[in-house]
Amino acid sequence: xxxxxxKINPFINSLKKIFLTKKKTKxxxxxxxxxxxxxxxxxxxxxxxxxxxxxxxxTFNLNVTIFICSxxxxxxxxxxxxxxxxxxxxxxNYLTKILxxxxxxxxxxxxxxxxxxxxxxxxxxxxVIIFNKKGDYEKNFAQIKKLKIFLNQGSFLKKNNLQIxxxxxxxxxxxxVKSDLEYLQNFFEKKYFKKPLIIKKSTFxxxxxxxxxxxxxxxxxxxxxKDSIKNQYLVRSNGEIFxxxxxxxxxxxxxxxxxxxxxxxxxxxxxxxxxxxxxxDNEQTRNIQIKYNKSKYIIDYxxxxxxxxxxxxxxxxxxxxxxxxxxxxxxxxxFDVISTLSKIKLEDDILNNILFQQIISKKFLLxxxxxxxxxxxxxxxxxxPLFNKIDLKVNxxxxxxxxxxxxLTNEKIAKLNFLNSKLYEDKNNIFLKSSFELxxxxxxxxxxxxxxxxxxRVDLETINFDLIINLTKNNIKIVNIVIPELKGDVPNEKxxxxxxxxxxxxxxxxxxxxxxxxxxxxxxxxxx
Length: 528
Description:
This protein is an alpha+beta fold.
């Protein structure tokens, strides 16, 4: 310590000498005095630091330092091992309690519990079940193969005061029914988790009221947490649904009073963005944007007493503008939509599209819980050699899609009416079974369009025919063909042979020219 003290006597003598010196002005004397004091102190401090550094260097001992570091590390290992030492078999009930406090679910933990300090201090529990209370009974909500509870290291010394940093769930199955959806929505909007939750390599099952699985998703990773700085609640997820990889993000911002969710399927260039602004107000502004390839659907909607009213004035199917409006009921689920499209182009390969086949299935649209009406009208029906207008009426009823009353029109030639038309799934194939009525509006133009020979041009007003079309395999079967004006009492063997030959594959109709030829054969069978 004597080396760190200033030498008092030389310092005092220096001050005396300075004050005794004559100066021209008082300001100048004070300035010189200050400079001399600073200079003296600076020189003296440099000397003392040099002496101190030399003493530390000479007294430094490497072995002592290693011993001290080892001791600190050993004490730290003992400290983080405390939970595994002081908690006995009662840890099962204790962990159940703190899990329910932090995550608001009813956990059932097995006694298969072990404690580990690597990679971070945590408890690992095998075979965990989560229950969701449904009235007087508890429903099995999740079955978890492995659960890890990562602990806050600042809470180890005080017993029964463990605090959770976050938990991780591995190889789990989640079973969700329709009644769970409202609960989960309220949970994320109001309660939320107090601590982060991470889910890895798990499966999400959605079941109908008969406990039948209608949809499932393989979850690679789900991260649920709160950003306290931005006051945001966040969900980040990625996985697969219907064998399509997806990325899902959800955010609730309590500063901006908005909820935003976004799901993307990059493989098929499909995404859905849903925005709910001012969610604290009765009049909430809600908007959903759906993008698929070059198509974009922008929908404004409001929810009043579980009824959704929606409309769109700025949606596009490719470059075609789409206008629509409608209502949707959430309980029970149903909808009624009316839309107009500037033009519709029927793609040749749409029936072979994987997404189309997944949507038109019992897992999605052909579901008995999916009910509603959809009307699409367009005065510009492209890619069709005969009709230029379409009035499509789709009625979703249980496991069927009713297309009855749909009309294809060419005002100059003919009109095709869909009668008793039904779309359904059977043995993983999508079928359309329908009766059709072809009304001839102008007989002369009709015959010219199909290039019917004058000798075969009979009085013709309607053609009725029944078809069964396998949309999955792109296969057509003719059940019956009737021209009411020409039907006689004697069976038409020539027509029956044509139908048989077509159904057995002897006659191919895959383009417009082949359709004209086959139509000529049908008409000639009546003309004799």
